[in-house]
Structure formats: C-alpha cells, structure tokens
C-alpha cells in the first residue's frame, strides 16, 4: 500500500498547491511585493516626468554649476554670490560639520560632568544635575534653539554696552564686590590686577560673540608641524607604555609626558622661528568691534541649544554606563590596593565605556541631524542653504532633497562604521 | 566537680552588652551631612557652589514668574515698567489674550466647541486606559484606538467628504451607477459601487482561497474579506455622511490642536507599522528583509526636517498631477513614517531578547506563524521594550515642533506668531511666552516619562512573582 508513497514520482504527482507550503508561500509573497515595488517606482517615475514637464522644471545636476547669486553670512571657505550652487553646497556642508563637531565636543564634556554629578554623594549637586537632565531632555530642541536665539541672545546689550568676559572682568568684579561689602582696602590689589591684564578678551553682545583671533605670521608652519609631531610622538609613547605595562607591569606617566611633549615642542618651534604667532584682540571703535573673530548669534544659539540638549541625554547614558559596572569590580580593585583615581581610570571607566559607546554614537548622530534645525533661526547650514535657498531659486526639489538626504545618510553611515569598529575593539572578549 | 568549687568572684554577664553609641560626629544628621555634604574640602566647595547656584536661579525665577508678574490687563501698557511704575516680570495677560490662538489656531470661534469635545473625549477615554485598576481594558482600547480617531476626525474636519467613486469607478466602469444622485448627502454612485465591489472582492478571495488552500477555505476567506470591508465601509460612511457640521479646512487648525493631532496620530500609526517593519526585518524572505532594512535605515539616517521637506516639496511631484494632498496630512504621514522606523528598532530589540525556547515552544504546540507571533512572542517582546516605546513617543511629541518650518502652526509656531503682535511688544513678552510653552511641553513629556517608569516598575514586579 505504501508503494506509491515511497516512489518519488508518486510524491510529486500527489503534491498539491498548498498555501501551507512555505516555499510556495514565500515566493508568492515576494513576487507580489516585487510587483508592487516595480509599479510604485514606475508610477513615481512617470508622474515625476509628467509633472516636471508640466511645471517647466529642469532636471539633472547641471544647476550645480550655475551662478548662485545669494550671499552666505558665515563661510569657512572663500565664497561670494558669483560662485556656483555647488560651491554654496560645500559652504553649507562645512558649516553643518563645524556646528556638529563643536556641539559633539561640548555635549560630551557637559554630559559626562552631569552624568557623574548625578551619581555624586553630594545631595545638592545630585539634585542640580537631575534638574538639568529633566529640563533639557523634556523640552523640544527647536524650542531650545528659539529660546536661546529670541529670548536670550537677542536681548543682550548692543555692541557699545557689550559684556566682557575674561580675566579683567573677573578681577574687577571681585574688586567691586569687595568694596561693596566694605572691604575697600582688599579691593585695591584686584583693581590693580584688572588694570594690569588690560581689556577683556571676549565680548558678548546682541550681534554674537567676539573672540580674540590668532594671527599666523611668516613661519608659523613650523609650529603647526611641531604640534603634529608632538601628537604623533605622544601617541607612539602611549602605545609603547601600554605594551611595556602589559609585559612587565611597570607603569609610565603617559599623561604628563605627553602633555609636556605637546606643550614644549611647539614652544621650542615658536622660539626658533621668533614667535611669528600673535593674538589679535577685538577693540571697540565707533558702534562696532574691529579685529578679533566674530561669531554670529545664530551659530551661538544653535551650538548652545544642541549641546545642552544632547548633554542631557549623554548624562543619562553615562550614568547608566557607570551603574552597569558592578560594585564588586570597585571592591576588587580596592582590595588589590588600587586607590580611588586608578580604580576609576583602570577598572570602572574601561568597563563602563562598553555600555556607553553604542548609545553615545546615536546621540552624536542625533546632534548632527538636529543641526538642520538651524534653519529656523537662519544659521546657514547645509539644509538652510541647499534645501532652503537653492530649492527656492531652482525649484529642482527632487535632486536637491535627494542630495541633502544623501549627505546626512553618508554622515550616519560613516559614523556608525567608525563606531562599529571602535565597539569591536572595546567589546568584551569572551573566553 | 560541682559548680560550688568555682571561685565566687568569677562573674559572667548574663546579658549581651549593648554596643556603645558612635561618637556624636558619626551619627544622626551630623553623619548624614558629613556623608552627603561636607565630607572633604572639595565636597564643601561643591556644596557651597550648588547652594549658590540654587539661590542664583530659583528666587529670580519665582520673582519673575509670580511676584513681579502682571496678571491682568488688556494690552501692552499693562506690562510696561514705565506705565506700571515697578519692575515687571512675566506678562501673563499676553497669554490670556492669545490663549485661543495657542489652543485652536484659526479654528472658527463658533466651531471651537468641536475641538473641546475632541479634547474632552480623548481625556475621558485615555485616563481609564492608563489607570491599571479600571476594568474593561479591551473595550476601552477598542474605543480609544478604533472609534475615537474616526469621531475626532469627523468632528474636527466636519465630515461630509463627498466621495464619488470606489474601485469600479476608478477602473473605468463609471457608467454603471447613476452619477449625481444623492441620498442624505451620500452619493448613490459611490455606495452602489462600494457594495458591488465588496461582493466581487469577497467572491474573488473565496475563489483564490479555494484554489490555494483547498475547498474548505473559501467560506472563511469570503467572511474575512467582507468583515474587513465592512469596517472600512463604516469608517467611510462616518466620514462621508452629512452630519450637519460646517467643514473646517486644516490650514485653519493651529496651536496645541495641531501638536496633539500630529502627536496622537503619529503615536497610533507608528506602533503597528513599526511592529510590521521589525517583523519584516527578521523575516526569512530575502526581499521582505531587504526592503525593511532599507526603509528603516533610510528614515533613521536622515533628519526629520528633510522628511517633512520631502513630503512637502518632493512628494507632490511623484503623485498624479490632479491629486493634491492636504498639507497637514502630508506632515502627519511624514512624522508617522519617521517614527515607525525608530519604533521598528525598539521592537526588534524586544524580539531579539525573547529566548529561542519561546518560539520553539509555540511551534511545538502547533501554532502557525502568525499566531505564534501574536500570542506568544509579541506580548512578551512588547512588554520588555515599553520604556523604549514611551521614549519614542516622547521624542515624537517633541518632534511635532518641526512642522513650523514647513509653515504649519503648532503650539510653538503659534507662540512665535503671537510674539510678532505689536500690541503685546513688551520687554518680557518673549520670556513669558517661552515660559508658558516650555511648561506645556515639559508637562506632557515629563508626564509620559514618569508614567513609563511607573509602568516599568509594575511590570518588573510582575515578572519577579
């Protein structure tokens, strides 16, 4: 009776088209999905072609060579309105990268500080850090950008009444404080000090931030080379010291020797070339400042808002990373005779980093993507220049939005590749 | 030897001595202060710095928002220090004057009761859903996620869509039905088309099921198709019937209304869509998997604002020329797609955390794939990732502010527009406005995060039982 079933041919003949057959089902689903996708792509293409010709919009990327015809208020590379859209794109991209880069650094510092402060035994510090985290995390980033721009920076004094920051205002502040509480005798040395250090270094007003500017004279290339050499040398030193520690167990003061290298080498180079570098301090003339480096308020608002907002998230990541290292690790390190500092540096932080790095990466990416919100206050980043002004002028929405999205996608992919590599390096090697 | 031989001078205490109390400096409030405030010199400095910071921030805020604040007035004169004669803090009359704009936008004044009904209905349905002890959760969920959106939609837009054609009409069988005839505001052509199309679709489904799954499956497939079409029909009927409400275009909506509409629609749409994407990403079918991965990674890699620009400027070029989509709807779809990609990653995390034994156990019980997911895997996975889901909701709520860049006036956009009113131009208007909007955003986001923490704690407790 089982002959037919045993024979191959019988099995094939007896096989029915059944929905429960996984192979058949999967190919039917995939063919259907493929057909839908092809239909979508085709109808998008056909509609776009019809719409573009109806509206008289050009297509293709040749517009990138056309004259842009608009000015950009902040540019890291030479640019004027006679240059091309392609050049404007580059200016915007660099502005985006600049604010993202500085934002990441500021947010990391502030975030780590706040994360550690939230774990402090000091209740006042802990409460303050918690309040900071809750407030910054629960307000929309765009709200924070507009707040800094409209409510804080725009209400600052005009250039003539600028606030000065630096050593001079600190000393004169102490002096006036002391004389206010009736200790005029003690105030004299401070006002002397204030006069000795000269004018403030940094000015804040409603037109932004005015910083001192380094001026590179003839031969400053040598200093730059010295800095690079010092960096490479301290990197090599660190590797050598680690190898030696792993082999012999003898530590080496890498931090201090590296710092000495980075400070001393450029100083030597500067001395050899006769100090070609000097700092140009801003000076108030008439109604505005002359000299120095002026930073536009849009940039300051965007940078402040992005870094304080992201720092709130980083603080929580750092806190959970440190809490994820079990207390036994600290106790074991103490019982080996390590003191507080080395315990933190050699035992707790390396283990916490494993937990911290992946979410930290996505916060960095979020910050970069959020930098596109600068368009709301008029910061000329990639999005404002390209998807804003250029799109308005050319109308080539498809190319422009695709290019803008592609830039952010590339940044995301590159960052996640780098972080993936780093993550693999620090990941726990299971034995 | 007996006891009596022992020396009478030996004394053995019969009670355990109480330990001596620690020195004064090491107990009670002193000890606490030493441990938490003044342990060492840096600690003391930190404490002093913290106390100074508190005093530098809190009293001026209280002074500004409460003590020096102006509470009554009709225009900017009430808030000008020169007119009032003392330093002026927050200018609350500005908020009172703009409160309608902030909550309804330009929604016609006579129709605002509809928005209020939607707000009230939402609160009435949502609160019992959030409180664990209230019974009838299932009915409540159906009402909130199924019925409420339709009611809110009809109330807010006014309904009476004037639908003209269904499937057959679009396929070119226009002549079959009498164009133009209406009954109670409903087009006869559309509804006749709908009924005939449904019957045809059910027949087709039955035939297909019979073909692929055997003769027994036909009836079930027809029934399923008909019930799905019945739900669709009910929704369409609600949107199409003339309920006598004046239609209100979405470009008149604004303020908190837009914020909540975008947030709630985004939240309700992103969860199911995100679950589908997460399942797609773990699918065994290569094409499904690749499509899901591409979709998720694309949306996660670009800023939301480019998505909104895509929906506003690029999408219309991809659609047939005569088809125009409402601006608010475009933004909502953009936000929902964007949020779904993030939701998919959160759900995937939960799916990965479910041990393989659960999948195998479900298979051993003979559950087919869809039931295995629905009854065994997803309930556990979703429970695991509730904090992540709520975090996404909070993110989505904050992201609704971005629509102001594509000229839709949400709460922040309405506030920004209110700032430009010269009748209220005072030195403190900006701070008052930001203070008010900040409080609203903070209450929503902070509330959500606290609720999620409480929920997490409860579920955690349940897991340990």
From TrEMBL, chain A:
CDD domains: TM_PBP2. It comes from the Bacteria. It is found in: Cell inner membrane; Cell membrane. Residues 93-419 form the ABC transmembrane type-1 domain. The chain crosses the membrane at residues 27-45, 88-119, 170-199, 219-241, 253-279, 299-318, 400-422. Gene3D superfamilies: MetI-like. It is a multi-pass membrane protein. The keyword Nucleotide-binding does not apply. Its main location: membrane. Keywords: Amino-acid transport, Cell membrane, Membrane, Transmembrane, Transmembrane helix, Transport. PANTHER family: AMINO-ACID ABC TRANSPORTER PERMEASE PROTEIN YHDX-RELATED, MEMBRANE COMPONENT OF AMINO ACID ABC TRANSPORTER. Belongs to the binding-protein-dependent transport system permease family. HisMQ subfamily. This is General L-amino acid transport system permease protein.
From TrEMBL, chain B:
The chain crosses the membrane at residues 44-67, 113-131, 143-163, 183-209, 221-241, 253-279, 291-315, 401-419, 431-451. The lineage of its organism: Bacteria, Pseudomonadati, Pseudomonadota, Alphaproteobacteria, Hyphomicrobiales. This is General L-amino acid transport system permease protein. The keyword Thylakoid does not apply. It holds the Pfam family BPD_transp_1. Keywords: Cell membrane, Membrane, Transmembrane, Transmembrane helix, Transport. NCBIfam families: HEQRo_perm_3TM. It is found in: Cell inner membrane; Cell membrane. Signal peptide: none annotated. Its main location: membrane. Belongs to the binding-protein-dependent transport system permease family. HisMQ subfamily. It is a multi-pass membrane protein. Residues 256-452 form the ABC transmembrane type-1 domain.
